[in-house]
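pasting for ref. prot 1 ->
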Amino acid sequence: MSYFSEHFFTGLIDLPWWGYIVVTLVFAQITNAAVTIYLHRYQAHHGLVLHPVPGHFFRFWLWLTTGMVTKEWVAVHRKHHAKVETEEDPHSPQVLGLRKVLWQGYEVYKQETCKLETMEKYGHDTPDDWLELNLYTKHSSLGIFIMVVIDFALFGFLGIAIWAVQMMWIPFFAAGVINGVGHYWGYRNFACADASKNIVPWGILIAGEELHNNHHAYATSARFSNKWFEFDMGWMYIRILESLGFAQVKNLAPKIRFNLNKAQCDLETLQAVITHRYDVLAKFAKSVKQTCAEEIRELRERAAQFDSQTLKNIKKHWLHLDAKFLKAQERAKLNEVLSKSQVLETIYSMRQELTTLWQRSTASKEQLVRQLEDWCHRAEKSGIASLQEFSRKLRYYA
């Protein structure tokens, strides 16, 4: 039997059954690293600078395993951040539905890449060298064909299965799970003006991309983990590259600090509140959660005209959203409920007022400090214990 026929079915490398699983997972992790480090944190958000060696390796690997073009991926992702949860968001499950984004995420992504306006407006500062223009972009499908040949040559027919997993990995986990589930289910550390969620505390399979709410809070940060129990595999890869001189971190999420001796708002408080506004809003929601639950419970008992779903939406969502994100019908229902509860009306209006502090571009810093101090003073005079406690803690931000 010839050497060729001997290795036609098994390939050049013969492995035990578990060896093929290891190879598949290793290949998948390299693709994860390429997406999260090169495309996402480096190209899209400039959270770090990559040395040309790993930078080009990642670009080459993505050409082989996904056929994705850097400019297209970056443009679609940047537009997602700019238009998040609106009709113009390329892949919001809040708009398109979770099922469509989860199972047709790649198709949704490809549709957006065909829009010239998206490419021109959001695809700037991406590679435009000879290789990018004449190989990676012009022949984006060629790499995929080369990869299937390589996998078959190395592992035989099992290599076709490895290749199939490679081809499905990013369309399912990135385009589907992160873009879909990551804006639908999970927990939130920060009250961003979108529906982003952290899917699970430990996400080795997708290299830290599962910490989606953290990312939306601090989009330019090279590190996605924020809490002690969160593990960002992509950040571990970046630290390894940094130790080898192949990466330089530019941006990290600022650390939250408190000064327990402060009794009055000052410029330091203002700057900290603006910088950590999503943390402030998350703590506000947590502080008043029990008060709102008790008030809604009483309201359900004394006001039968409010259906349980409306009260549930108010408790979980509407009280903690900016008014502009509510539909007209939702605003009408919310206002009707607020008219029956002074406590809920006060909490809601105080939250809306708090968000205007980082939206008023015409006010001077001194004016904003006075407004913040006035907000705290009125919160402490509200008679609502949870609001009073939050106000006192708000002054500690430093």
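and prot 2 ->
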Amino acid sequence: MRVRAGTEGSFAVRFAWITGVRLLVLTVVLVGATTMYLGGLGPSAYSSRIAFFTVAAAYALTGLYAAMLRIGKGKLEAIAYGQMFTDQIAWTLIVYVSGGAASGATSLYGLTCLTGAILLGLRGALFAMVFGACEYTLLCAAIVYGRLPLPPDQPPDAYAKSWSEAAFPLLLNLLALSVVTLLASYLAERLRTTGGRLEVATARAEQAERLAALGRLAAGLAHEIRNPLGSIVASIELLRTGSTLAPEDKQLCEIIERETTRLNDLVGDMLDLSRPRAPVKAPMDLAITARDVVMLASRSSRGGDVLVRYDGPEALAIDADAAQMRQVAWNLVRNAIQASSAGSEVRVCVRVVDDGAALLEISDRGVGIPPEARERLFDAFFTTRSQGMGIGLAVVKRILDDHGFDIAVESAEGKGTTFRVRVPR
């Protein structure tokens, strides 16, 4: 599991907490070893020197790891593996001076496995388990075969000097280490998954709160804005029917009409986003809806310089909310027209795919969507254009999510964008 740039900060925080806990555990180990196993031995005794040297080295390495957290950005995973490796060596030395195979300090191997699971998941826990198990097994074998002398200041009876004595505690501790590793990995993964879901839920709650505030604002402004807009549009229509207008005046009237239409669409999008309505599914014809939207778009303000073409069957029945699916098609087609240059083409296609699902495709030949913007494409108030507020696609996503339909985006810079809405059979 690689530590990605987006999660490096949280990894460093976990590593810092683990380092602090590690210092506490080392202190407890030193006190416990001194009290239980090294009691009565002077500081110059063999076991005491090994225990004190081990803990002192571990303290020094902890300080080194803490310093590397500041200067080792991008190498945190390697630092974590290094810490687990040295920790297992330290626990092996503590086990050696505290009874060998039957030492109670063997539980410290599991602590490192828990650290690996918290930092790196299953991969880190397995790494710690394998090294801890190997070092523990080699220690027991070295004592049994006489390759490693027993601490001279420890009672020989406390050590297993044959396989008949060492086999049972060895296997029992290895089994316990495996169980701890699996449980720690499982719990760490569940915690990581739960944390991710909590972040998503928090983001959704914040978005819902923003939308609620927007709904209150939109409801108050919609009436006040739409009434003047209606008066403006009616007045412009009366002016255009007159015969006294010069060609330049007619062009100005067209500009006013186009901008009032755009403002009216914006108010409608705000209301659709802030006041969601549960879909009422019923049999409807997706093909007819798509053709109606194409005809409406052809008569819109940019219908004259962008060709909107329909490609599909005469009829295609689906179960959906007809009004909301019309809103989806209109928003996607309008978005495609806005992304197109003069003389370009927008293609609206309806077809049935192999599994029987209905597919609505809206394609343009615009500049495309930058890769860094695709993850936020359906976020409310996010837009890549200088004009617009980023509401239309958010409305599309909300409607399709409420229906249980999927939407996919395929885009290449300089080659255009295709939105695909999939309606399951």
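Residues 207-274 form a domain with the Helix Hairpins fold (CATH 1.10.287).
The first helix runs from residue 8 to 36.
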